[in-house]
Amino acid sequence: MGSLSGIIQRPVIAAAVAALASVSVEFSDEIQSFRSSDTCSTSEQSSSLLSNSVQDSNFSWVSHISVSKLANLSFVTGIRVPVPNVSFPVLDVSQNFVPNTSGSSVASSPFLVNLYRSAELAKGPKSSAFKTTTIPPSSPDILYRWHLPEPSTIDVSGSSDCSSEKSRTVVVLLGWLGSKQKHLNKYAEWYTSRGFHVITFTFPLAEILSYQVGGKTEQDIDLLATHLADWLEEDGKNLVFHTFSNTGWLTYGAILEKFQKQDLSLLGRIRGCIVDSAPVAAPDPQVWASGFSAAFLKKHSVATKVHASSKESDTEVLVGSKTFMEPKPAIAESALLAVLEKFFDVILNIPMVNRRLSDVLSLLSSGQPSCPQLYIYSSADRVIPAGSVESFIEKQRRAGHEVRACNFVFTPHVDHFRNDPQLYTTQLSQFLDDYVLTHRKHS
């Protein structure tokens, strides 16, 4: 029972094959739609990005960040980034360095352009003042990246308290099951355009399928927690967590657990937690089945759709005084859901799995830090029931937490931003203004 790799992969992969067969007729359309745009992401052409990064105007902002500003970022010397096979001398800004009087900048090479646009954090040995970096021409989707604030938001004079507060805050985006870095880009861009540092963290689906208690998945969370703790070593630095679905929320719980074991004072540096499309605070097989089905089928899943018009196969659902048409899953998806639900009914009751989940869920339910919380959810969510979210919100309020919530009513799972960006960003802005960018203390 030390590894769930074998027992999880075989039935789940078999179910996934069945599901993929049900949508194979649409495969060519999927390829074409992938080339033009992704349903839950901003468009990203990774192959052309690497070859054209120097010419791409999206990277031009890096040239406005001076060496003197970057020298204040203690994490810079620990950054490693996948870029094309290049060999450039890279300045180690931890060394004493004085820029020339003409105001030279650090974005003259394509390596640095890519480095500070989106960096993979990793522990590394101390470097010399100049070093040569050789990196393979391609790499898989990485686990997490660091995104710097846009230069127009940086207050060089240091006279703005609000800008100073943002520069000392990292927003940690914890992705949903099956999400990739590109899916979190639009959220990261919104935060960086307002002056925040951002880390985007995602798990490869294959890594979740081969989960072991204490295995690679938890080691990856340990690595992230260690980097966050390093960031907080300097006085005045803070964190804001923004989680997606139960996967992101459980990852947040695992990080809280690491902080508790390492240094309880780290919990006091968390200024806020934003929970998108979660939680269900129990190991519910139906929720897990819905989540994995949506991850396997992606845009073909019924979880991604809400119909405004009626079909014979749709079900009419009353939400408050309004109704919307809830589409029924296709036969193949219904079969997949049934198989997955039976499967997780067994898996979630394996003692070591149940105990591990119970520990994290208990911490999230009754041991959260005292920071304010914002819950963004929807009555139309086919993965996370709105009733479960609202029940959890009430328990948090009774426990004395400052809690805000917004029901988007008609938007699908983890798709609220794309469907109603104005409402979504308004909720984020108000939350950040009221709790993160002020010096109010929440006991």
Summarize this entry quickly.
With 443 residues, the protein is α/β, with parallel strands linked by helices. The protein has helices spanning 5-22, 27-36, 46-51, 67-70, 110-117, 161-167, 181-192, 205-209, 216-231, 245-262, 285-297, 331-347, 351-366, 386-398, 416-419, 421-436, and strands spanning 79-80, 88-91, 120-121, 130-133, 144-147, 169-174, 197-201, 238-244, 270-276, 315-319, 322-326, 373-377, 403-407.
Key structural traits:
single chain, 443 residues, Rossmann fold, two-stranded antiparallel ribbon, 16 helices, 13 strands, disordered N terminus
Structural write-up:
By secondary structure, the protein is an alpha/beta fold. It has a domain of 301 residues: 3-Layer(aba) Sandwich (Rossmann fold), CATH 3.40.50.1820. The chain has 16 helices and 13 strands. A seven-stranded mixed beta sheet has the order 5-7-6-8-9-12-13, with helices on both faces. Helix 9 packs across helix 10 and helix 10 packs across helix 13. The two termini are 42 Å apart. The N terminus is likely disordered. It is a single-pass membrane protein. Belongs to the TMEM53 family. Pfam families: DUF829 (PF05705). Keywords: Membrane, Nucleus, Transmembrane, Transmembrane helix. It is found in: Nucleus outer membrane.
Q: Provide the CATH superfamily of the domain at 5-36 and 140-302 and 331-436.
A: Alpha/Beta hydrolase fold, catalytic domain
For the record, give the distance between the C-alpha atoms at the N and C termini, rounded to a whole number: 42 Å
- Global geometry: globular
Order of helices and strands: HHHHEEHEEEHEHEHHEHEHEEHHEHEHH
> What's the main sheet like?
7 strands, mixed
User: In order across it, which strands form the biggest sheet?
Assistant: 5-7-6-8-9-12-13
Could you give the count of β-strands? Answer: 13
CATH first level of the domain at 5-36 and 140-302 and 331-436: Alpha Beta
Average pLDDT rating:
73
How many helices? The count is 16
